[in-house]
Amino acid sequence: MMQRKINLLLLFFSLIGGAFAFLIGEWLLGRWLEELPSIVLVGIYFAIVALGVSLGALIAEMVSPRLNGASWKQRYLGLSWKLLPLTLVLAFGVGVFTEFIYELNFGGVKPVKDVVMIIDDSGSMMENDPDNRRYSAAQSLVMQMDEDNQVAVLTFSDSASIVQPLTPLGDGQNREKVSAAILNLKTTEGGTNIKGALEESLNVINGDSSTSRGSMVILLSDGASELDTASDLRTFTERGIAVNTIGLGMDNPSDATLLQEIAGVTGGQYYDVSDAGRLGDVFQQIYDRLGDRTLLTERTDATQDSPYYAAVRILSLLLVGAALGVGLGVVFDNRHLARSFGLGGIVSGLLAGLVLEYGLTGLSIPDGIIRLLAVLVLAAIIAMFTGVVPVGEGRLTRRGTRNTGAPANASDSFPAPRRNRGSEGF
Known about the structure:
Layout (H helix, E strand, L loop, with lengths): L7 H25 L5 H26 L6 H6 L1 H27 L8 E9 L4 H4 L4 H12 L5 E7 L3 E9 L3 H12 L10 H13 L7 E8 L7 H4 L1 H6 L2 E7 L8 H10 L3 E4 L5 H10 L18 H25 L3 H25 L4 H21 L25 H4 L13
Parallel strand pairs: 1-2, 1-4, 4-5, 5-6
Antiparallel strand pairs: 2-3
Helix pairs in contact: 1-2, 1-15, 2-4, 2-13, 4-13, 6-7, 6-12, 13-14, 14-15
């Protein structure tokens, strides 16, 4: 008989299992995000969530088989334990597939691999950065960059100068060469020609023959100059080249206005730094925001505000939720539960996708809380959806544990004796 019913113990244990899975997944993200391919890591994360939720639900039904009935516990529990690994495989496969789609570049989006650093070496820097911390910060970033990056270094005062053109860092000697060139820089006399520096950075970027790589600029200065942001930055905006700006020692807020506008117009970020000793952290923070695009982290590349990638993330979580729900129904070998949990997974996945898309900020602790909320939404709605879609008996397979303890019927072993029709009169 089909009924709408909820196993509150299953809800509670699913949430506990999801919370434990979240802790393991967060440890993996923190430890392996920069080491493992993100496609594999995201697949593992979702597989762990599926295992935690499914294991919690299975234990709850063992204790109180409200959804499957006592006959399931007696005859099919062993089969459910054997089917449990299928939830991992299904969630891992869907996670890998959706992450692969999410990482594809559409609509002319190019992965940012080229970084152009523009460093102010005008005379005023002798006061704001007397120890040349900006050079050591830039050098430290070069040593931390990935091997598939290219980096260029420019300095400027009255005019701009190319210290190092775009140089691939896959060769260790190139990395050392760029590092040495930066450390040999010294502060000069002169003014602050930001317009000329930006024009020269475009010349450097245009000198690269590759059309499949995106570029990003880091501009550090302690002053302002004449610049028409509408016309002088048009090429940057048309080509999607973000200019991240750093204002060093900007005591007067109005002096930072130009750098803020440059970042805002081109899609970059502005960083206000009063202590040159913090420049290393700021340079690294800018570079980290280039990070790989994943379903579990904030987009920090050119697709940050893309409605297309927002939709892809939400739909991806919808598929993950559906896979989790169907997998849970398969564990219980019940087609009605598979339908109920699967529909619940679609709803919960949609909500979890919205939570991730509009909740992630790029900050470590808040983003962890957002991912936990998404996992709990997945677990809770799937567990409660049997109160919306009725469930009942309905095996997916015909295998189970037969009751071998009962004696066999005699008729199963011996044929029934024939009646002696010739003796009917006696």
